Amino acid sequence: MNVPEVTEYASALEDVVYAKHNLYTCSDAGLREIKESITNERLNRVVVASCTPRTHERLFRTTCEEAGLNKFLFEFANIRDQCSWVHMQHPAKATEKAKDLVRMAVAKSRLLEPMEEIEIDVAPAAMVIGGGMAGMSAAKSFADMGIFTYLIEREPQLGGMLNKLYALYPSHIKASEFLQPMRDAVLRHPKIEVLTSTQIKDVHGFIGNYDVEVTSNESRVTGNGSPVTRHPSPVTRHCKVGAIVVATGAQVHTPEGQYGYNGRNVITQLELEQNILPGLCNRKTQDTRQETQEREEGGGTKGQGEFPLPSSPRPPVSFESIKNVVMIQCVGARSEERRYCSRICCTQAVKNGVLLKEADPDIQVFILFRDIQTYTSGFEDYYFGARDKGVIFIRYPKDRPPEVIPGSDPRVRGEGSVVRVYDQLLGVQLGIPYDLVVLSTPLVPHDDAKELATMLKVPLGENGFFLEAHVKLRPVDFATDGIYLAGCAHWPAHVGEAVSQGQAAASRAAIPLLNGRVRAEPIVSMVDEELCIGCELCASLCPFKAIQVEMTESGRKARVITASCKGCGACGAACPQHAITMGNFTDAQIDAQIDALVGL
Amino acid sequence: MEDQKSASDWEPRILGFLCNWCSYAGADLAGVSRFQYPPTVRIIRVMCSARVEPAFVLRALRRGSDGVLVLGCHLGDCHYISGNYRCKERMEMTKELLKIVGVDPERLYLGWVSAAEGQQFARIVASFTDQLKAIGPVGKAKSETPDNIKENLAAAIDALSSDRVRWLIGERETLLEGENVYGEQMSEQEYQKLLLESLVDEYKCSKVALSITDEPLSVKEIAGRTRLTAREVLPYIGLLKHSGRAVQADVVDRSPRYKAVKVV
């Protein structure tokens, strides 16, 4: 691309008094040159034609500000990502396109208006929704920074999924033993108010000023460990917080109708951990079967989102009789119905295979897989360790899934019960007798994730998990300021990831909370009160409840809550009075860009 | 032969509206990944595809763009929760309006590109360019009549800024999901019908108003200019007079002539 030609073209445009070609405009020298030219040429608008505003707008705006120019009088023309890098075979046409883009940017910049950033006070408290590992680690991080935190859990117990798991990979520490210290630390922390058996009812407000309505069935004294007072009827409370972390976790997909799933001798990995492993792994020391059974029946904690126990009594297969275990991977995942990989099930299957082998080396464990993905440092060795211990891995092709064929009487061990599988590597059909089939099913979003997302006004991705602001640059933020994300609510994560995400979310949220104030870009709706007729159409269109219609001296008028407004423009595009426009994206500015494309 | 050659050399000018969060990022990714695409598109960044007013699309076509590309986040992935649904409704309506105006609706392309889909962005630009090459410049498509197209687009832009149309667009959800004061609910079909009727009505009314902007005309003359029948024109004159947008200027040969009044 011929940049000197573009520079020359730009310098000839109306109102352009200075145009300069730099090699690196964003270098110190380049920025200095911008500042000097603002002063020397008394510039009142600056256009940089280089890379993308998504990465460099902030830098150039700051440069303008340092030279005494309002930073919103800056405009970008993206001639790298949109020209030189994508039209390499057409340098002449790319040059012409760059001229067009510069002309359009200059046209918009003429109409730019100085604006001020918005400053908002921040309430010095946080809320964490979800009391699993991610949520507890976020709450503890907040509290350790001195930030008062509400930890909301809808179950009567903190701990989330760890209450259901038996042991954790790769150390095989019992989930309950791992959980206990964290739970105690949270319950005893003077800066954490734990609200169990509590539901989120409504969320109002914006960064720094959230008002969250919750209803609790019980309460406890903060910092006093576990004593709980149960309320005769739910108590409604309003929590005022500056930031919210969503750590609501996920649930295990129940494979009804697949592979003969019956919750008895064809079960999920989670059911294996809940019903079989505790007894099997401890039978040499003590017979805890009775105890396990009692705990399950008396539990009374089978709320929504937990693994649903069968309604008819289906006692798990007696673990003494287990000699052949067949695990099937990717059940209900990486398929047409659910395209994603749940990430954690491979390592979970490897772990449970090893646990079975360690409990009784005579147990045969077969893991039927499509691809084994034991990611994370050290876990590849863990997988090979499982093979060394005698766990047998058999690869099956996606289009020829295994078949589970129950025997004539499945309650009698091995009576013809067999899993038929095509071994892709050997190229033969195998029949593996089984006493127990364990299905590795993916984590799926909670049924009511959508409801919470709507209340918080944050998006869900295509699979129904909460969607972060940027997959690489803002992995624990939402696009909505003041709301953050951790753990399996975002995507299937193992415990270590849930903890680090919880900590990450808390430290991200601590930035506004500890600063006490936030500055927001004024790319927000602006209502011309003279034109506004108070029809409320904008208010009903706003996905963020950022517009309220108020009574004023001159009648009903729409008012924008600038801290809530994210500047999407949905309201402005529909206002029957054309009374709403967007800061930095006004109708006139966009019209000028459109017109500049071809001239008039 | 001559014609064919010049037609294949011709390259469309495309104006693209891309949302900041997904599609603009996708276009950046196409750059970073060096995915090559034809140099036919010029991009305007908006925060959300919901910012794209139908009038922007018509304005671009009127000012000489051959096609308009509107790209947002995938449905369900909008950073503003539901903005791309609003955009989808509005662009579908815009396509209907283009048909009414006599512009090939294929000149408007609405699509979804995520921040991770640089390749998809490049592909869309390439295929839309090919599509427009097949259609040709504005006025040259088979379904298009070259004369009057700019005036028609101007009338359509006016129609879009009418209270009635903007109300219907803005209140879509309320109308479809809620009940009116009589406890009745509107079906999608009924809504589309009402919207289309209103668009046609406002469009014709704007055409009448535009025809008398520069000089006073009689009903018969207006009918000639707008290609409406005199019977169609008359009620619009009444409407324009009533709303103060037109006045009777004079009477020539016993026919009253009307003139538009610029509304501030």
Outline the structure in words.
- The complex is a heterodimer of chains A (600) and B (264).
- Chain A has 600 residues and is α/β, with parallel strands linked by helices.
- Chain A has 15 helices and 28 strands.
- Chain A has a five-stranded parallel beta sheet. A five-stranded parallel beta sheet of chain A has the order 14-21-15-16-17.
- About 5% of the residues of chain A have low confidence.
- With 264 residues, chain B is of the alpha/beta class.
Count of DSSP H/I helices of chain B: 11
Low-confidence stretches of chain B: 1-5
Which strand order does the major sheet of chain B show? 2-1-3-4
Mean of residue pLDDT of chain A?
A: 89
How does the helix and strand content of chain A classify structurally? alpha/beta
How many individual β-strands of chain B?
7
Report the portion of residues of chain A in β strands: 15-25%
Q: Kindly report how far apart the N and C termini of chain A lie.
A: 26 Å
Q: End-to-end distance of chain B, in Å?
A: 52 Å
Provide a short characterization of the protein structure:
Chain A is built from 15 helices and 28 strands.
Which terms summarize this structure?
heterodimer; A: 600 residues; alpha/beta; 5-stranded parallel β-sheet; 28 strands; 30% helix; 23% strand; globular; B: 264 residues; 3-stranded antiparallel β-sheet; 7 strands; 14% strand; disordered N terminus
Task: Detail the topology: elements first, then pairings.
The complex is a heterodimer of chains A (600) and B (264).
Chain A: H1 3-12, H2 28-40, E1 46-50, H3 53-66, E2 74-78, H4 80-84, H5 91-110, E3 118-121, E4 125-129, H6 133-144, E5 148-152, E6 167-168, E7 173-174, H7 175-188, E8 192-195, E9 198-206, E10 209-220, E11 228-241, E12 243-246, E13 251-252, E14 266-268, H8 269-282, H9 289-298, E15 324-328, H10 345-359, E16 364-369, H11 379-388, E17 392-395, E18 403-405, E19 418-423, E20 428-433, E21 436-439, E22 443-444, H12 449-456, E23 483-485, H13 495-515, E24 517-520, E25 525-527, H14 537-541, E26 547-552, E27 555-560, E28 580-582, H15 587-598
Parallel strand pairs in A: 1-2, 4-5, 4-12, 5-8, 12-23, 14-21, 15-16, 15-21, 16-17
Antiparallel strand pairs in A: 3-24, 6-7, 9-10, 10-11, 13-22, 18-19, 19-20, 25-28, 26-27
Helix pairs in contact in A: 1-5, 2-3, 5-15, 6-7, 6-13, 8-9, 8-10, 10-11
Chain B: H1 2-9, E1 14-19, H2 23-32, E2 41-46, H3 54-62, E3 67-72, H4 83-101, E4 108-112, H5 118-135, H6 149-160, H7 163-170, H8 172-177, H9 188-211, E5 217-218, H10 219-226, H11 230-242, E6 246-252, E7 255-260
Parallel strand pairs in B: 1-2, 1-3, 3-4
Antiparallel strand pairs in B: 5-7, 6-7
